[in-house]
Amino acid sequence: MEEGPIIQTQEFACTICKTSMDIEDLYCSECGYPEKGTEREIALYHARRAMQKNQNMDADKKIRLARNILYVMAGIVLIFGFFSFFEDEDLGVLITNAILGIIYLLLGAWTSKKPLAALLLGLFLFLTTIIISGIFDPSTILRGIIFKIIIIVYLGVGVYSASSIKK
Amino acid sequence: MSIVCSSCNVELYREVKFCTRCGKQLLKNNVDKRTSSLNLIIVFYATFLLFAVVSYLLYNEYPLNLYVEIGIESVFALMVVAFSLFDYKQIVKLYKIPKLNRKVLAFSIVFPLFSAIVVSLSIGYLNESLFGVSENYYSEYLYLEYPLLWAILFTAILPPIFEELGFRGFLFNSLQKVVSERITIIATAFIFALIHFSFISFIWIFPFGLILGYMRSKYNTLWYSIIIHFIHNFVVLMIDYYNFNYSLF
Which residue in chain A is spatially nearest to B24 when comparing CA positions? Predict the structure, then answer.
């Protein structure tokens, strides 16, 4: 059996991400860096990277803001629980609010390690609380509606920001 | 596997993020994929919240009505199946009968017996003492001719089938695309607990959901979680039945 010709391909690494590249490749297959591009193409590539980095810094700020909202929610819920208890001696509301407040606190703390999961669950918890309150007393749905919308928007932005910077 | 660049038509012999000839971004990047999955998860949850509100209003408007009960259960089942169609290839695999593992099967039978008894005693007591509410799943169907049979159907049979498909099937698979396996188990348990609309019950539904999610994750099947969920609900219902007729507790 005759052996076929041995094809040798020279390899080198991408200047930016060090992914190995074939000698014939014009662009890096991993990060898109124009290894043999013009100055303008290289400048465009770096501009895109800088914008991406900027977006990531912006995302961090949005995540921190969303985390603070979870802490504020925890505070409001706990204070309301205690207030109800001292006002009406309603142990049921106190325990329910204590559970809710602790969940918000835990989610807020978890945001520093797992921001995407923590903020997504925080958003769902907030939405569920609105619905449960609305079922018991429909008038609560419209009460503070602007604040509710702002909280939902900030938590939602936090979720998508966390998703955008997740490795 | 080779792919062809949609911009310069050059053939590439492996999956790459960027075309090595013209630099066009080819693979949908991870952020886009995560965003699609996140959108679907949020729509899934929002749909269930809306469904819960409509169900509540219907139950209030037409209490003790079998047609309303069947209608609501049917809509729930259709919703779960409709969402599952987005990922039906992966979800069908979860219904493959697993190899019989006696230890796992024994756990799937004994654990829900234990959880049902603990929950019936503790949460029943908590609800009654804190809120003055005494829930009895059996007594809700007394208006029908065969209350126990209807109660078994609506409490023990249908929820395990469709809740497991929705939460440990569709939601679990969607979350897996967004977060790690461990976080997926925690998140599905959390959402499963939330959807039951009781923060007191969160204390037991969350750990119960963790067990169901762990079984789904470890054995890659829905059967164990369906069995556990069924036995748990069935035993709670039987305790309620016995309680109602013989005032055991």
Answer: A32
